[in-house]
C-alpha cells in the first residue's frame, strides 16, 4: 500500500484507518514486560484498563508489513488522487482549507524533506513520505504493545464522557483518526508543525498546523491531551506540561507515550561497543548537544506532579530490536521494530549526527551501514524501553 499524507493528495491514510478502526480491547492483558510503578503523587496500582469507548462492533485488521515496504513516492501537491479513492472520506479536514502557502515551503537536506512552519523551531526528523510511512508502521507497533488500546488513561472515569481531545505533534494523524473513530461523539484535534495529515477524515477529527511549544490558544479546554513519540521534539517538558494543565478540564487526563533512550541489553549479548548500542549512545549525545534530552521520560512523573497533576502513572514496555525474544508476542513486536528502525534510521540520524555531533553526511552513512547489520543480529538481545506516563488534573 503506498500512502499519501498531503493536503491535496491523501486518501490511503484514511483507508488505512478504515481498516484499522476497531474496538478497544477492553481489559486488554498487560504486556508481559510491563512493570507499572506508582510515581510521585501516584496512588499505587494502575487504573482499570477497561474502556467505555462507544464503538465496539468493528474488527481490527492489522496491516501487513509489506504495506510499508513499497516504493517511496512523494505525492505532495499531486492532483492525481480523486475523492472517490477514499473509503472513509466523509469529511474534509478544516486544516486543508486555511493554510498559507509558506507552511508547504519544505526544506530539503541530505535527500530528505523537513518541515517549513516556524523553521526556527528545530525538529530534526524528516516529514517526507518515507518518514510518514514509518510513523504509520510505528502506530501498529503501539497497537501491538497496548493490545489494541489507544491510551491507558481511564477515560471511562470522566464524569461527562470524552468530549474534547487534543493530540499534540500528531504526525500523520493516525492516532487522532483512530481515536475519533472509536469515540464518534468526541471532538478530536490534532496539531503539528507539518500539514501532512489526510484530508478525508472522520467528521469529528480536525487538524491544525501549530507549534506545541508556543502559547496555546484553543477555544475550549480538553478532557484528554495526548502526545506520542515527541521526546525528540520537545526541549522544555515542564512548560509543555504546564500548558496541558492549563488547557484541561478539572478531572481531565494527560498522557505521553514515548521512547526512553538509550537502547538496553540486559544479558551481555551485546556489549557497549556494539554498533547498535553505540548508535543509541551517540544519538543521545548528539541530541543533547541540540538541547534535546532523549532520556526525558525519566523525569515526566516528577515534572507532572510539580505542575499539579495527580494519580501519575508510569508504565514501562519493551520494543525488541528484532525477532530475538522467544515469546511470540515479543517476537512480533521485534519484527515490526526492526522494520521501523531500518526505515527510520537515516531520518533519525542525519540531523542529529550532522548538526549535533558535527559529522559529515558521508561519515553518518558509513556508520549506519554497520548499525543496520547490528540491528539484524538476533544474537544481540537489544531493546528500546517505551514509557507511557499519564496523570489527572485534580477535580
Ligand atoms: C516522531 S513524530 C510522532 C507523530 C505522532 N505523534 C505519532 O505517534 O505517530 C513527531 C511529530 O511531532 C511534530 N512536532 C515536532 N515539533 C513540534 C512542535 N513544536 N509542535 C508541534 N508538532 C511538532 C513533528 O512534525 C512530527 O510529526
Give a short synopsis of this structure.
This protein is an alpha/beta fold and 395 residues long. It has helices at residues 12-20, 95-98, 129-145, 174-182, 237-246, 275-289, 297-307, 328-356, 361-375; strands at 35-38, 107-109, 112-114, 164-168, 187-192, 205-209, 222-228, 248-259, 264-265, 310-320, 382-392. The protein is 30% helix and 17% strand.
Written account of the structure:
- GO terms for molecular function: methyltransferase activity.
- Residues 74-86 have a biased composition (Low complexity).
- Pfam families: Methyltransf_23.
- InterPro entries: SAM-dependent_MTases_sf.
- Residues 1-32 have a biased composition (Polar residues).
- 30% of the residues lie in helices and 17% in strands.
- The chain is an alpha/beta fold and 395 residues long.
- The protein has one domain: 3-Layer(aba) Sandwich (Rossmann fold).
- The strands form two sheets. Strands 1, 4, 5, 6, 7, 8, 9, 10 and 11 form a nine-stranded mixed sheet that branches.
- A hairpin with a 2-residue loop joins strand 2 and strand 3 (112-114).
- Helix 3 runs antiparallel to helix 8 (328-356), helix 6 crosses helix 8 (328-356) and helix 8 (328-356) packs antiparallel against helix 9 (361-375).
- The longest helix is centred in the C-terminal third of the chain and has 29 residues, at 328-356.
- It is globular, with a radius of gyration of 20 Å.
- Bound molecules: S-adenosylmethionine.
Amino acid at each position: 500500500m503506498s500512502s499519501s499524507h498531503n493536503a491535496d493528495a491523501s486518501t490511503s491514510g484514511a483507508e488505512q484507518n478504515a481498516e484499522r478502526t476497531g474496538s478497544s480491547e477492553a481489559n486488554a492483558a498487560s504486556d508481559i514486560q510491563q512493570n507499572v510503578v506508582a510515581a510521585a503523587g501516584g496512588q499505587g496500582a494502575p487504573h482499570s484498563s477497561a474502556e467505555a469507548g462507544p464503538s465496539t462492533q468493528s474488527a481490527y485488521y492489522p496491516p501487513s508489513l509489506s504495506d510499508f515496504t513499497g516504493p517511496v513516492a512523494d505525492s505532495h501537491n499531486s492532483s492525481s488522487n480523486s475523492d472517490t479513492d477514499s473509503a472513509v472520506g466523509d469529511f474534509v479536514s478544516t486544516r486543508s482549507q486555511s493554510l498559507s502557502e509558506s507552511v508547504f515551503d519544505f526544506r530539503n537536506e541530505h535527500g530528505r524533506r523537513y518541515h517549513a512552519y516556524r523553521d526556527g523551531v528545530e525538529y530534526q526528523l524528516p516529514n517526507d513520505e518515507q518518514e510518514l510511512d514509518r510513523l504509520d508502521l510505528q502506530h501498529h507497533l503501539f497497537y501491538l504493545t497496548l493490545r489494541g488500546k489507544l491510551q491507558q488513561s481511564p477515560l471511562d472515569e470522566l464524569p461527562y464522557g470524552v468530549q474534547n481531545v487534543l493530540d499534540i505533534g500528531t504526525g500523520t494523524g493516525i492516532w487522532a483518526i483512530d481515536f475519533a473513530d472509536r469515540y464518534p461523539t468526541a471532538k478530536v484535534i490534532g496539531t503539528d508543525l507539518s500539514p501532512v495529515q489526510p484530508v478525508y477524515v472522520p467528521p469529528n477529527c480536525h487538524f491544525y498546523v501549530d507549534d506545541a511549544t508556543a502559547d496555546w490558544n484553543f477555544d475550549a479546554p480538553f478532557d484528554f491531551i495526548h502526545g506520542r513519540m515527541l521526546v525528540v521534539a520537545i526541549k522544555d517538558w515542564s512548560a509543555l506540561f504546564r500548558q496541558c494543565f492549563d488547557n484541561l478540564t478539572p478531572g481531565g487526563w494527560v498522557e505521553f507515550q514515548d521512547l526512553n533512550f538509550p537502547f538496553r541489553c540486559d544479558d551481555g549479548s551485546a556489549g557497549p561497543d556494539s554498533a547498535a548500542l553505540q548508535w543509541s549512545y551517540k544519538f543521545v549525545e548528539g541530541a543533547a548537544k541540540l538541547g534535546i534530552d532523549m532520556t526525558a521520560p525519566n523525569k515526566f512523573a516528577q515534572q507532572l506532579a510539580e505542575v499539579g497533576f495527580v494519580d501519575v502513572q508510569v508504565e514501562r514496555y519493551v520494543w525488541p530490536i528484532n525477532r530475538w525474544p522467544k515469546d511470540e508476542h515479543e517476537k512480533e513486536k521485534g519484527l515490526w521494530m526492526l522494520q521501523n528502525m531500518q526505515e527510520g534510521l537515516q531520518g533519525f540520524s542525519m540531523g542529529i549526527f550532522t548538526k549535533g555531533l558535527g559529522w559529515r553526511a558521508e561519515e553518518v552513512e558509513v556508520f549506519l551501514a554497520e548499525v543496520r547489520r547490528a540491528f539484524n543480529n538476533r544474537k544481540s538481545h537489544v531493546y528500546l524501553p517505551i514509557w507511557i506516563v499519564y496523570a489527572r488534573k485534580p477535580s
